[in-house]
Each structure stands twice: as C-alpha cells, then as structure tokens.
Amino acid sequence: MLKKISFIFSLFCVTFMTAQVTFVAKASREKVGINERIKVEFEVNKDGDNFIAPDFEGFKRIAGPGQSVKQQWVNGKSSFSKTYTYFIQPMKRGQLTIGQAEIEVQGQVYKTSPITIEVTAAVDNPDDGNGNRIDLSDAIHLVAEVSDYKPYVNEGISVVYKLYVNQTTNVRNWRSLDEPKYNNFWSQIIEIDQPEVKQGTYGGSNYRYVELRKTVLYPQKSGKLTIEPLSLSVSVEVPSNRRDFFGRRLYDVVERTISAKAKTVDVKALPEANKPADFSGAVGKFSLNTSLSKTELLASESLNYEVKVSGNGNLRLFSLPKPKFPSSVDVYDPEHDEKVSTRLSGLRGQITDNYTIVPNVAGSLEINPVQFSYFDASEETYKTLTSKAQVIKVNPNPNLASANNTSATSTGNSVASTGAKNIISTTNTFNFIELETEFSAINSNRFYNSFWFWLLIILSLGGIPLAILIKKFIRSKSGIRNTDHKRANKLAKRYLSGAKQSIGTSEAFYMNLELALHKFLKAKLRIETQELTKEGLRDKLSAKQVNDSEIEAVIKLIEKCELARYASEANQDMQTDYKQATELISNIDKQL
C-alpha cells in the first residue's frame, strides 16, 4: 500500500512539473560593442496569446519579431516551445536593460526577467547577432587619421575622421552613434560647418570622401594611450531586384553601422635633463613680451604692466610667469585674457596677464626681467626666454599731504634700491585733540521744567521722524548688500560671457563654461593649472572657509562640463548650468 501511495505521489509531481509554464528571455551576448547587434529570444513552453515585447529603450530594433514553433515527441513524451526573436543594436554606451516581455497562457499573464547588457566602445570586427561577423563591403570606410603617433606629453596632435565612399554608392545621411571620450587627452574640436566632398584614394582605389570631424589632442601623460573609435549610423542606397516602368533599377535605403578603428599613440615623457626650475609645462614655440601702459606718472597714480606669451602650442595648459615688483608699489590681481584659435597644427594665439600697479613714493622704480621656459618638441630641447627690465619714473604728487611729500623728497631716487616707505611726521599731528576737560556743577533743581524734562518731551514728539530715519538707515544697509551682490554678479558675468554667447551649442558652451570656472578659481585662489584637481580645489576652498556645499557644487559642475562637452544637451539644461555657474561664482567670490 505504501509503494502505491509513493508511486501516485511521484506521478503527481511529474505531471505538475510537466504542466508548469516557463517563459524566459535570452540574449546572444551580454557584453557588446556599440556597433554590434544582439539576438534576443523570448521562449515559452506553452501556447500563449497576447505577446507584448519590451520597448527596448536604449536600443534600435533592426528586425523582428520573428516567430517559430517547435513541437517534439520523444519516448512518448511531448515538448512544445514558441519563440519570438528580435535583432537589436545599442544606441549608447553603458549598462542598458532589456525590459520585461509579457504573454498570456490559459488566462494567466507571465513575464520574463530583465536582461542587463554592457555596451562598450565600437569593436573592429562587429558581430551580427548570430555569432557571425558582419562583412563590410568596400563601399564605405570610416578612417581616423592621426598626425603623430609618437608625440611628447602636452605636444599637440590632430585626429581627422574621414568618410570614404566609392564612386557607385550614394550616402543619404549619417549620425553619430558614439563619441570618443579621449581619456588622458585634453581635446578641442574644430567645427566643420558644411562638409565638402573631395576626391581621393583609399587602398589604391578612387573614392569620394568628406572630413566629418577634426580634433586637436594634447596627451596629458606618457605611455601608450588609446584614441577610442568614432561610430556612425549611415543611410546607404543599395540596388534592389525591382525596376520601374522604364526598366531602371530601383534602390532601397538601408542603415549600416561603421566605425573607425581605435588608434594607439605612444606618448613620450618630457626629458628631465636640463629641465629649467621654472618650467610650468609649456610645449610648442613661443615668444615672451612685457610692456607698461606708461613709463612716467605721479605717485599714487596707477598704470598697467602686461606679461604676454604668444605662439603655437598648449597655450591653455600652462601658467604665465609671475613678475616680482618692488616693495614700494601696490599690486592687484592680474586680469587674464586669452586670444586663442584652434587649428590642426594646435592652439595658436596669445595669453596675457595684465597687472594694475600703484607706486606709493616718488623716485625711479625698476621692474626686474621676467623669465619663461618651454619645451620645443621639434628641436627636442628646453628654451628660456627673458624679457627686458622696465623702468618707471614716479614724480611727486602735489595733491598728497605735505608729510608724504616731505618723505618722498627725502627718499629721492634711492626708493628702488632701498625700498623706503612714506614717513609720517608727528609734529602738530594730534593738536586737534582736546587734552583738558572743563567741568560744570550739577543743577540740583527738580526734574519738572528742567532741561531733561523738555528734552524727553521733544524726543517723544520726534519719535516718528526718528523711526523714519532708522528705516532709511536699514534700507541703506540693504543697499550696500545689494551693491555687493551686483558687484559679484558683474564679476560672474564677465567670466561667463563666452559661455552665455554659445548657449545652444553644446560643445562650445561647456568648453567656455569649464574655461570660465577654471579662470575664476585660478585668479581667486592664485593657483596654477596643474593644481586644478578635485582634491586641490577642496583643500584650497576649505582653507578659505568656503561652504562645503558650494565646494561640492563647483566640483560637480566642472565634472559635468568635462563629460558633457561632446554630449547633446537641451537648451534648458544649458540655461540651468549657466545660472548655477553664475550663482556659484557670485557666492564663492563673496565668501572669499
């Protein structure tokens, strides 16, 4: 009896397991390049209805659904499966998820589990989703041409992306699928407004080609660095087997994904031998010039001293030399200006620091020469430039106090060598202070009708005017704060003027926004370009007692600029980022 019960129980379990519905999703691969395809199958072991596919967010549907049914009898047992097949291609890099599919079996709804796909940069030999390699014909080629595969650190190289099309193929349009990240490079894109079709050769054959993109790169470290590939989706006209009424062949438009192969650059470190002590990372060919706005003036008047470096090289990646001024002058933070254009040969132009200085005493002042060192990559040697010494003639200012004039006259032309300061004469200086006090007897009369009685009456009656005066005083204080706020906003807008003008163009906007934040922080914190790191900024701003929230906000905004320079952003996002940058510069400036 016990054996019969066990047999019936086992038969019941087998029957139950056989009747259980399974609905699963399978992907051909879980790690793919952005130019590869994925085969996705949704398989159910019972006949069902009302199949609902996922929306494939982040993917482009290439083909599907394809439906197949398989039913077998093996050793008296039947098996059934229905499969829905899709071919999809990722549209962006990162972790993408294929959502749940649904199907109804015998009135019950079943769902698959989501599938996570890791999408990487484009690969040289893409998969078609069936495990086969896509055979790209000789009709279209995307090529990345690198100007120099063995540059020095901070030496500019160019990458030109060319699309080659043979003489019998027509390309309707193209769009970028994936942007190279240029890790460990400082990059600058050269805008191409209208691509021009040119004639050329590729692999010994004649092709038409267009230059789609030009980029200037400055490697930031030595060693083997990889330039990631650019991937495009191209609409191509291909001949079909159909013909029109006149017998002419008809063409179909198909989408094809192509990518330029990754390039490896072997970056050489700058030599340590004979490196100048004042070398700040400048690589290229430069000239140095210093100038004064005027060479003669009165004491306490201001003039401008300009330090300018011109040439071709990494102009935005080094600091200008700091001049040493005599101790008898007041010096204000320099106004930094950059007039730089981007060409395939690199950055070209000039950068300038303009100092405002105010001599305090009369005499002859000499500003010592300025030195600037750079590495000439073409000659593989360091060079040092030295400016000329500048002499300023400071005349006595008749508008200054007599004591100051006396001091200036006594120092004469020895100010520059001795660094003497103004001497304030103490003769009769404090005669305006009363040194003796006159006392009067206290009036012992009663309070009524006394002086204090009538004074309190008058003060009581004058309470309203006094309240009005207090209110005006409070408003005046508020006006001072408003003035400070306007000054801070004016400073922010001066730094962000370039970013504001380029709102609507993602690349230019985020480049200018990042440059504005860098210029502001360098000027206010008096730091060099190489100190603009996350930890360096945190330490410097914390030491200046800037709020932690402001510090994190400005660092995150700089990171967003670095990531978003080549990403497509909506105008509303740019407006928001511009507004945030304005507030951050204003707030940090007031705290500093």
From TrEMBL:
**The keyword Cytoplasm is annotated on this UniProt entry:** no
Annotated signal peptide: 1-19
Q: Which residue ranges does UniProt annotate as crossing the membrane?
A: 451-470
Query: Would I find Membrane among this entry's keywords?
Result: yes
Recite the UniProt keywords alphabetically.
Membrane, Signal, Transmembrane, Transmembrane helix
InterPro entries registered for this protein in UniProt:
BatD
Pfam families noted in UniProt: BatD
What is the protein name given in its UniProt record? Oxygen tolerance
